[in-house]
Amino acid sequence: MGVARTTRRSIVSEGLTDRIARRIRSEGPLTLAAYMAMALYDPVGGYYVRRDPIGAAGDFTTAPEISQIFGELIGLWYAALWLAIGRPDPVILAELGPGRGVLMSDFLRAAETVPDFRRSLRVYLVEVSPVLRVEQQHRLRHAQPVCVRRVEDLADGPILIIANEFLDTLPVRQFVRGASHWAERMVALDPEDRLVFVDGPESPAATLLVPEALRQRPPGTIAEICPAALALAGMLGTRFARQPGAALFVDYGYFPSAPGPTLRALRRHRPVSALSAPGTADISAHVDFAAFAEAARAGGAEIYGPVPQFRFLTELGAELRLAALGARATPHKRWALEAGVRRLLDPGGMGLFKVMAVISPGLPMPAGFAAAA
Predict the structure, then answer these.
(1) d(CA 317, CA 311)
(2) Cβ(42)–Cβ(16) under 8 Å?
(3) How far apart are CA 366 and CA 131, in angstroms?
(4) Which of 7, 70, 147, 369 has a beta carbon 3.0–4.6 Å from 304's, enabling a disulfide?
(5) CATH class name, domain 17-361
């Protein structure tokens, strides 16, 4: 036991940058995905493991933190879907990366307007951060949520899944088009032991990992893939094909698939180098919604969207809900409500986030996706 404690103390004191450097010296350059996994999820120094990153005092802000209307509308969207899939009771309600539990709290408040739906829900939270897990358990204690670390740990049965700004946190790999083939971009050490990007050797194997539609791009082109997102999509597609289920993904990304680097890092709401002080900045990449949809469809699910967030929320009644809340609010509260909704619906800002539904086959088109039909 003393040896284990000593080892853990030495790991903590070593620092995440040092551990990444030591791994590179031992194994050679890391894939970008391996580097991101350590920077974000290392059990001692990972970004999501040791801090609350959300809000003005953090590094970024999400839609639920901006307006309660976001979670409320999603709650009502799922109530309608629950009716469409036959009113299963019980039904798992799982949020992937639930942050501080704000979205789920607003969702459950809206769900109470459909009492049978609310009673049927068994709340699960998929979360790796012990810091955020404490906040979630406090905020959602009335719902008695079950916390798990992986999607694979969710119980079997009918399921409803929410994932707001979750896919963008999954590690990506980058490939660079060379003269003859593609090469993988790696993270290595320079002569002064600083973390740097380097390109691996060109190879037919690397070329096969690049989406076929992008393989013939000119030299110097960069392509990103997200194996973890594709694996999740395939797993959900298979699950939804054999039992009732639906998942709603809200994120920033592109459709159709496109080349170009999208990796970015934020610290205190400002862009920084993704290799600068790993574990202290949020690292993310845009979501390839086309690739995600293709993987889910191959598993057997049906796909709706993506549609822009501003269209989705408008079709669900964001303006009507704003008017109802504003009618009984103080002037200051009414101003805050209006500012929050305007920010979510801004077609030049967060309104351009994309919304995609992955659902069991044979169900009617869910609300919010008429614009994509």
Answers:
(1) 10
(2) yes
(3) 35
(4) 369
(5) alpha beta
Both structure tokens of 366: 């869910």
Please give the model's pTM, rounded to 2 decimal places: 0.92
Report whether 267 contacts 51 (CB < 8 A): no
Taking CA atoms, 175 is separated from 90, 202, 217, 265, 355, in Å, by 44, 10, 12, 19, 27
5: left (phi over 0), alpha (psi -120 to 50) or beta: alpha
* Residues in Cβ contact with 332 at an 8 Å cutoff, skipping those fewer than 6 apart: none
- Residue 362's SS3 state is coil
| CA distance linking residue 9 with residue 371, whole number of Å | 55
Beta bridge partners of 35: none
Strand, coil or helix: 190: coil
Alpha-helix runs per DSSP H in the chain: 2-14, 16-27, 32-41, 47-50, 63-66, 68-84, 102-111, 115-120, 130-139, 204-209, 227-242, 289-299, 309-315, 318-327, 331-345
Q: Which pLDDT tens digit goes with each residue over 304-347?
A: 999 999 999 999 999 999 999 999 999 999 999 999 999 999 99
23 φ, ψ (degrees, to nearest 5): -65, -40
Angle between helices 102-111 and 68-84 (to 10 degrees): 50
Domains of the chain, residue spans: 17-361
d(CA 74, CA 232) in angstroms, rounded, equals 21
DSSP-H helix ranges across 140-288: 204-209, 227-242
Buried b (16+ CB within 10 A) or exposed e, 264-286: bbbbeeeebebbeebbbbbbbbb
Please check the confidence at residue 2 and state whether its pLDDT lies above 50.
Answer: no
